[in-house]
Amino acid sequence: MASIRSTISAKQTRMVIAKKITINKRFDGMPKPSDFKTIEEELPPLKTNEFLAEAVFLSVDPYMRAYAHNIPLGATMVGTQVAKIIESRNEKYPVGKHVVGKFDWRSHTISSGLPSHVQGAGNAPAPYLVPDLGDLPMSYLLGVLGMPGSTAYFGLLDVCMPKCGEIVAVSGAAGAVGSIVGQIAKIGGCKVVGITGSERKGRFLVDQMGFDGFVNYKTDDIAQKLDQLVPEGIDCYFDNVAGEISSAVIRHMREYGRISVCGSISSYNYDVSDPPRVVQHHMVRKQLTMKGFQNYLYQDRASEAFQKTLNWLQKGKMKYCETITEGFDNMVQAFIEMLQGKNLGKAIVKV
Fold first, then answer.
1. Is the model's pLDDT at 311 over the cut of 50?
2. How far is the C-alpha of 105 from the C-alpha of 112, rounded, in Å?
3. pTM of the model
């Protein structure tokens, strides 16, 4: 973790040495530790309306791999964190409070509290103070009560629009988004099948998350296993992975099925100019509807997803799992292991 060294001056300001992790090389396939560089920098004194935040929890997510080719070399890797305000000249952000912000992979951040532009990842909303979560950990604001949670909520309910009694399939089902999608579908009275990469993850989905069944895409024949689990076909598909897995699911869908395209994890480590193929024949024959979406389009409704999900968690209708890596210096390791599928639920780094 970065150090804070006090100096004596007339204004009693303190010198802060922060760490940031930048992109050192373009990724070639799976990112490697040598693709990143950790840099220390001295932060300037705060200006009027600025505050200084110290990272507490940082998020690592698949989208970071997808956006990395747009981030200039030498720029800080993008990301969101929960941070503690340790110095402030902005009355809206008092010292001692915690804040959620797009502060990237940094140990310490100076912020004006205004919306900002994130290199390679579009515009970021203004940081917000951590609300009262009761007994729930603040790290949930990077997962089930944050971007992954709202992505699951709107991607399923607004795009797929599942009806009670329908069958929902979720790929990337044991991850931060997929594990929430399945539970929301179950709350709505649907039968849910998760597609994942190990027996351990499959048992996690069924035994802990309440899924009705799972497909292990690494060992199962996906088409045969879907025939066994849901011979009647699939009504809604929440797609996190694309590629051959999604082609197999689309073949198994019923007429007028709906597909919500959230991500294409299977292709993130390959050439971005060569996207996954889609089985067009089945799209036409079954009159399927496929829609891609991005979470930022729902920013004005974020409170809706937050309140609904918070209520489900507090009432015990929803469970959540985190894989937590300790230490800012282990950000790269946590990121790579998340892309390798070693996490259950949300991947978090705790400083």
1. yes
2. 18
3. 0.90
